[in-house]
Amino acid sequence: MLSPAILLSSQQWAQATFGSVQLGDPRRVQRAVDLAFHLAQHPQASLPGVLSPAGLEAAYRFVHSSHTSYEHLVAPHLQHTRQACHQQAQVLLIQDTTEMDYQAHPTTRGLGPIGNGTHHGFLLQSVLAVVPQHDQLLGLAHQEPFLRQPAPEKESKQQRWKRERESEVWERSVRILGSPPAGSQWIHMGDRYSDIFAFMRQCREQGCDFLVRAYEDRCIDLLVEQGETPVPPRSHHHRSPTLHLLEVVKQMPIRSSMWLELKSSQKHPARKALLAVSWQPVRLLPPRTREANQWRPLVIWVIRVWEPDPQKGLKPWTGSC
Fold first, then answer.
1. Is 74 exposed, middle or buried (0-12, 13-18, 19+ CB in 10 A)?
2. Transposase Tn5-like N-terminal domain: from which residue to which, for each copy (predicted)?
3. How many domains are contained in the chain?
4. CATH code of the domain in which 131 resides
């Protein structure tokens, strides 16, 4: 495999990524490489925009062939990316969900509701691997398409916990990627949708770290000061008087500050924001559900980054994780 630090040409990248795809015929493999080469040269273009009429017709035959599948096409790229992750000292595994909207194709079958339920399509969970020290993109480490399943009417909370839930895709991605090699650090990252105790728990079980943006006002206890040894987690059957995460975060002292360049938007001009930073180790208690009955608390660091004194007339920048 070519080193991920080498800058490949479009042709080299297409061959390295799709040259080993298993499609049952070397002509189909070459077609996959050719398509990838043309699209890599013009990433924003459509197939008609980069192919000749004859090439476009051949491409349509290729994608409609029963021998061609998404799973086969993406497999070599995922494998290369995962191998590259094992060669790095630190990797960010950035995970998010994308809505694939097929509302303009009403006759397409096998889809489900997306958004607020007025459109149909499917959801795509992607994990992007990045080396932060060099801003180096390794590629997709995992990707899973799935359909949203409407919740049954009058479903109880206990019934909901018994069936497969959409949120499980986050922890499933962590489990599939597994553990980092000895001496390496993998950090799973996600937005507010990833504030799921099971997701964070799965990261710990795989020997990974995580950085998620807080959404739930979770119960915490046994705050410890910096430099102290965290108290070993107890079963949540022995809960001490608890505090709520978002209340504690607002009371944490400022420990540092930093400047952040904010880009312009339709509502605000570009500007610099002076941000305050605070952090505190806490014990995060598991949810009170039958599924989490035997789960143990997680000792984590909670970080708050916010703008305490914005310019007059401007909305303050806020963020927490």
1. middle
2. 11-66
3. 3
4. 3.90.350.10
78 in a structural domain: no
How many CA atoms are closer than 13 Å to the CA of 59, on its beta-carbon side? 18
Q: Three-state SS for 130?
A: strand
Q: Does any domain span residue 75? A: no
pLDDT tens by residue, 165-200: 888 999 999 999 999 999 999 999 999 999 999 999
Per-residue model confidence as pLDDT tens digits over 87-116: 999 999 999 999 999 999 999 999 999 988
User: d(Cα 65, Cα 34) in Å, to the nearest integer?
Assistant: 16
The first and second tokens of residue 141, run together, are: 């480490």
Q: How far apart are CA 63 and CA 56, in angstroms?
A: 11
Q: Which residues contact 161 (CB under 8 A, 6 or more apart)?
A: 289, 290, 291
What predicted TM-score, i.e. pTM, was given to this entire model? 0.83
Cα–Cα distance list, 246 to 197, 210, 321 (Å): 16, 19, 11
Domain boundary among 213, 232, 255: 213
What was the pLDDT predicted at 314? 81
Whether 209 and 221 map to the same domain: the answer is no
What's the alpha-carbon Rg for the chain, to the nearest Å?
Answer: 23
Q: How many CB atoms lie within 10 A of CB 209?
A: 18
**Are 271 and 157 in the same domain?**
no
Q: Is residue 176 part of a domain?
A: yes
Q: Which stretches does DSSP call E strand in 31-163?
A: 90-101, 112-114, 119-131, 136-146
Contacts (Cβ under 8 Å, ≥6 apart) of 112: 120, 121, 122, 147, 148, 149, 150
CA 66 to each of CA 28, 61, 100: distance values in angstroms, whole numbers, following the listed order: 11, 10, 22
Share of the chain above pLDDT 90, in %: 69
Last residue of a domain, one of 193, 213, 233: 213
d(CA 127, CA 206): 16
- Domain around 222: 214-321
